[in-house]
Amino acid sequence: MRNTAAYLKVWRSKNQEKIKQYRNDPKNLKVHRLLNWSKRGLIHDDVDALYKMYINSTNCEFCNIDFINDNGKQQRCLDHSHESGAFRNIICKSCNVRLPKHT
């Protein structure tokens, strides 16, 4: 039986370009984003429409700051109730950290 963590570390080091291409494919980005939302308990009737709204939003719905920071990273978060899983807003990382998680 091989050590999976060690195997994956070697595989990743040998396949950096393949990984980069995979991560930059818009289809793969969408699949991973939707999977992440599902794992975090998000409930929404139309996740495709929600994803489209998410990628097209440019400003925080609370503080109106641009989502793109100085180094080009997207700082948007999908706010949802941690109790019911219902979507609430698309907000910046700062507002997401300040909001209570229990509502």
Summarize the structure.
With 103 residues, the chain is mainly α.
Mean pLDDT across every amino acid position: 85
Number of domains: 2
Radius of gyration: 17 Å
Structural class: mainly alpha
What do you see in this structure?
With 103 residues, the protein is mainly alpha-helical. It is built from five helices and two strands. It folds into two domains: 1-39, no CATH class; 43-103, no CATH class. 49% of the residues lie in helices and 11% in strands. The chain is globular, with a radius of gyration of 17 Å. The termini are far apart. The mean pLDDT is 85.
Topology:
Blueprint: H1 4-14, H2 16-24, H3 26-39, H4 47-56, E1 76-80, E2 87-92, H5 93-98
Antiparallel strand pairs: 1-2
